[in-house]
């Protein structure tokens, strides 16, 4: 189902019902109230009044042109003539006064379902989530450099999301100055749209876009994070997420929603034990994760006492990629605040990461539809009708 926040525009002359539905909107994280002169209308909730004959053609035009995503009629009256005109024009909902919260939510669910069936079916961006059994495995190094490799193919089409807690380190790897973090988005998640998301993004000189994480704060709630991830997938071809090992009794949304889960490990018994436990944890909560899970052996030396094939046997699964040890170049790049693949492109580590990026098969760029359309003011103040008629609360027309 479409997970974006649905804008709501109110055109109600009944002040009491207007206030009532404003309270419902404020309490529902899936919708947000917009002014009638905003650049997007979303769902228009309209109360037919004395001017309905003048208003309805404009409202129908807004619906047919896409300026309005959906239209709900509301009021004490279910005027048969108006309802017939509405049904013929694609208006399907009528909210009976007093508007009940369950009726309002049901209408929104039907709108979201219809939107899911008719929205652009072009491919969304792919999420690649990088995770390790513990810190210190080189997961952030891999995330930063993998993002740079993918971005080099189409600058500005890759974003790096820093989800490490309690504080991420991505900006240090890029010597990146930034003003905003995803924490700013979660302060008022109802404002989240493509324009707002773009405005808080930091940009590296390579063209890579970065959404840093705040320091010392908890993770966003699951709903907020899902909305952020979905917006990122609409805007970018590749979403690289650097995250911590899952904690608690569920797997985080950035792992659950990932097209590929890239798990880093090192060839030591304690690390293999942690990796095995993490793999089983993810499997237990998401059986589909098995096909999306890829193991990366990092910092592999020729004289390691545990070989890659032995580690694969211990884990009972294939290790897809191997990154050799090159501590000097890696540390030098980190201290410079320059990605390794840029500072030392001939390093064996850089070559290995380029190989990983290539195997992840980036998609050709496809044009995505915008999330809103401009429109003019389509209604005026209406006089409240006092007629009472059929009880069609929450009805689908």
What does this structure look like?
With 397 residues, the protein is of the alpha/beta class. It has helices at residues 15-26, 52-65, 80-88, 101-118, 139-153, 170-174, 182-187, 194-199, 222-235, 253-256, 269-285, 289-292, 308-315, 327-336, 340-343, 348-359; strands at residues 6-11, 31-34, 42-46, 68-75, 93-96, 126-132, 158-163, 202-203, 209-211, 238-243, 260-265, 293-300, 321-324, 395-396. Strands 8-9-7-10-6-11-12-13 form an eight-stranded mixed β-sheet, with helices on both faces. A six-stranded mixed β-sheet has the order 2-1-3-4-5-14, with helices on both faces. Mean pLDDT is 84; it is low at 367-391.
Task: Set out the fold topology.
Elements: E1 6-11, H1 15-26, E2 31-34, E3 42-46, H2 52-65, E4 68-75, H3 80-88, E5 93-96, H4 101-118, E6 126-132, H5 139-153, E7 158-163, H6 170-174, H7 182-187, H8 194-199, E8 202-203, E9 209-211, H9 222-235, E10 238-243, H10 253-256, E11 260-265, H11 269-285, H12 289-292, E12 293-300, H13 308-315, E13 321-324, H14 327-336, H15 340-343, H16 348-359, E14 395-396
Protein name: Transcriptional regulator
Organism: Pseudodesulfovibrio sediminis
InterPro entries: P-loop_NTPase (IPR027417), ParA/MinD_ATPase (IPR050625)
What share of the residues does DSSP label as strand, in percent?
Answer: 15-25%
Q: What's the total count of β strands?
A: 14
Overall mean pLDDT stands at: 84
Order of helices and strands: EHEEHEHEHEHEHHHEEHEHEHHEHEHHHE
Low-confidence stretches: 367-391
**General shape:** elongated
> How would you characterize the largest beta sheet?
8 strands, mixed
Protein name: Transcriptional regulator
InterPro entries: P-loop_NTPase, ParA/MinD_ATPase
